[in-house]
């Protein structure tokens, strides 16, 4: 086991004193680009008719087919102090497909929204296949973008990145589509995987640096690389030193073998779980995994104003990224280091719901538990 727990949990002690290259998927193939190893994304997608509920969906999964930064800043939608909030019955948003989003109830996102729904000052960079920023439920969400691939567009032709964007920050209570975990946060579209889902570690590293330099607080990387990369690890460590938190998919080989960048100490590696809190099909696990989050039959946005289900750790990581965005809007710098990422990580991990599963770190995320760690919920 990596010797990391003292470093990770030191910030929570302070809080307790002060408070009253393929996108990770089930099947991967290796190609060669310009003589270098690259990975192709092949996303797991569960095919379900629009009339089926999540509980009715089939168990089987099939491979899916399917430089300037500009910012928007507004007042955050959050409480002004840390006065505890008693949990009251949740107000269900009017998004038309909200009933398909079992994961939001599982992580208690609705209760957390009584404290904060995020802030437009919190930027989440999605390093992926791009984002369809013209999607009806992502209107106004993408405030910065860059394309590091040979694709002629930063938009999402593949479909993977748009699905992740919706999980994190789809507009809520707008009468259409779904609700994101942090619906008031903003997104950065950092396209590091091409339109076939292929990328290289050096490109992911470039994307990390760009996101840091353009104001990201959270970076979601639902990408798996099978070999260690010093350049990528250096970028991950630089992000942490700059106050940025990186959330990563643990991969979908059904094994304990390390996947990068998730294996690196300064990432939160995320396994995937089902509705009953069992490990999702093919999710990786192990003593290097830090958290678990819902990653089975996840309903979210797809390009061209479409929606659909997908399964895998790629779609578990964005739930943790969404929670991180919520927490960035309310935590304070308890140890005086001038950064918030250590406090955010500490309360995510301390708030984990313990599961009877080996190899999922601190358990499945729970937004209410994490907020309670800093005195916001009672």
Remind me, CATH topology? Rossmann fold
Number of strands: 15
CATH level-four homologous superfamily name: Peptidase S8/S53 domain
Please report the first level of CATH classification, the CATH class.
Alpha Beta
Distance between the termini: 34 Å
Strand-pairing-aware structural class: alpha/beta
CATH architecture heading: 3-Layer(aba) Sandwich
Biggest beta sheet summary: 7 strands, parallel
Count of alpha/pi helices = 9
* Arrangement of strands in the largest sheet: 7-8-6-9-11-12-13
- Domain module count: 1
Shape: globular
Order of H and E elements: HEEEEEHHEEHEHEEHEEEEEHHH
Average pLDDT: 83
Overview in brief:
By secondary structure, the protein is of the alpha/beta class. The protein is built from 9 helices and 15 strands.
